[in-house]
Structures are given as structure tokens and as C-alpha cells.
Design brief:
Layout lengths: L1 H7 L9 H9 L7 H9 L7 H16 L3 H9 L1 H4 L7
Amino acid sequence: MVAAIREVMIGAACQRCRVHFLRNVFSVIDKDAGEMVAATIRTIFTHPSQSAVRAQVDTVADMLGGQFPNVKRMLLEAKDDLTAFAAFP
């Protein structure tokens, strides 16, 4: 879907749904770690500027990457789509 949007709507931003992203994350971690991982990921969306939001993705990916390498990969691959909201005023 994202590839199609970028191909047809050149220059358009696509915001990935946070809820669906977290569901995808939950599918690759143990249930017991879910709330901690979700709370850590939610910190990404609390920052006031685009640069801070994008930096927080890297910070969270590094924090979780040791224990959850798949989550780190998912965060970094989805970085542009997860942080698209921060480009708007």
C-alpha cells in the first residue's frame, strides 16, 4: 500500500497507524513484554518537533534492540511512515 501511495501520489506523506504498528510489534515479542515495549514506543509520539520525534525513534530502537532485535528493525524500517505526522504544523 505505501509503495502504491508513493508511486501514484508523488510527494504525499503517508502516516502509518500507531495501533496497527503496535499490533505488528506484539506479534514478534513475548506477551509479558508487551506493555513495556508499547510504553517505550509511545514516547516517540510525545515530542514537539520533527527532529525530536525522529531522534526518539532511533533512541527507542537502540533501547529495545538488544532484547528485541526484530522490534528495532521494524522501527527503523517504519521510521518515515511512523513520523510523518511530525512534518505538519
